[in-house]
Amino acid sequence: MTLEEARGEPAAQLCDEFLQVLEAIGVHGEALPARHRRLVDCVEHMLAGGVEDGRCNAVVAELVAEKVPFVLFSYELACLRGAALKTAIDAGEVATIRAVQGAFDILEERCAGLYVDHYLPVLARRNHLRLAHIDGLSDKNLLVHFEAHLRWMQAVLAAVAGNNAAELPERDPTQCGFGRWLHSEGSLLIRDRSHRHEVAALHADLHGLLGELAASIGERRRNRHLYALLKRAELISLDLGNEIALINNIVIMSSYNKDPLTGLLSRRSLDKVLINQLEIARATELTFCVVMCDLDHFKVVNDTYGHLAGDEALRHFAELARARLRQSDLIFRHGGEEFLIVLPSSSREQGLGLAERMRADLVAAPLRHDGQEIALSASFGVLEVHPGSYPFIDAEVVRDILREADSRLYMAKNKGRNCVV
Ligand SMILES: Nc1nc2c(ncn2[C@@H]2O[C@H](COP(=O)(O)OP(=O)(O)OP(=O)(O)O)[C@@H](O)[C@H]2O)c(=O)[nH]1
């Protein structure tokens, strides 16, 4: 498309007027901030060679490759447009004002199109990697629904890339496997009704985007809109994947092997579960926390009050901890009086806060045994895990994580116990 076609104006005249405006706002002098320089280059290339000009595309491709976000790019372009318009308005030339408006409209759309062109294969690649992580899970359980939505997204991207709205996949959220599951077994599994509604709304949002995408596909003047929709679709699909992974943890907590004394997950499934958490965290691009905790001076409890009191103390801690945790957090009895907690999609701050509340709960609720009150305390080591920092996910990574969490726990013990590190 040329400027002439786009505006129905003689291109040369449009260019002349526009160049005068650029001159007036100081594009060739010091007045223009350096950050606008490349955009001006882009505008000039476009004016000289039309919007299909290779050099114009090259400038935008450079910005995209440098990961200059589209919002920043748009903002810079809007600043430049504002400066150019102000000059044109001051000059009072209607034709110049129109020239500026027209040129910037075309430029913005064209550049947004280049961002879309760049983003489509990037997103397809990322989705492909996410699929590979889900595919690597030893137990997919409910994550088959995340997998299905990643495939669904691939179909959406193919339809957008091929400019073919007819190839868009299923729009109706109640017709997809996850939608059906959510309104049947899912409603029994997720106890919190508002959480259930939130997940259903997220799922409906993702499917709902297809209507808007269908309207944008094939309309060359809606690239900005298309780009925003694709970004939104990626974010929602990740959020949905995270929610599915959280619900999946409820399944793990209810169906995996249990420690008979405390009813918590037994150590036996720990390696498998942690490897799977790493793969999921990689696919959803979220960090998680591992909290290692150990009851303090537990030998003294056993020696003073007897082994049965010791057993009760372990059950007591397990109950207090479960009451503090979300349904989707995982808690294992890791050793004798040692516990390991996995907090999905949580930062270190959140992990520290939760551990501190569990520590305070235990201190505030001494164990009642045989008419006596037994004061208990525990120490906690909190580790934030960035799945992206491990090139491979294997049993060795799990050992590193456990070692690191353990060393934090021992720092807490060395600090005097009854604390969180
Ligand atoms: N009652 C009971 N005791 C257990 C169980 N498993 C391990 N223990 C006891 O837990 C105690 C752990 O003692 P230590 O490893 O010396 O640690 P601690 O006394 O808690 O001291 P710190 O961890 O350093 O604060 C041992 O006496 C074990 O016998 C269990 O299932 N029931």
Automatic annotation (TrEMBL):
Q: Kindly give the InterPro entries that the UniProt entry links to this protein.
A: Chemoreceptor_zinc-bind_dom, Diguanylate_Cyclase, GGDEF_dom, Nucleotide_cyclase, Rev_trsase/Diguanyl_cyclase
The broad enzyme category this protein falls into is transferase
Stored PANTHER family:
DIGUANYLATE CYCLASE DGCM-RELATED, REGULATORY COMPONENTS OF SENSORY TRANSDUCTION SYSTEM
Transmembrane ranges, per UniProt, are none
Please provide, alphabetically and separated by semicolons, the GO molecular function terms listed in this UniProt record: diguanylate cyclase activity
Q: GO annotations under biological process? A: cell adhesion involved in single-species biofilm formation; negative regulation of bacterial-type flagellum-dependent cell motility
Q: What is this protein called?
A: diguanylate cyclase
* Ranges for domain GGDEF: 286-421
* Pfam families associated with the record: CZB, GGDEF
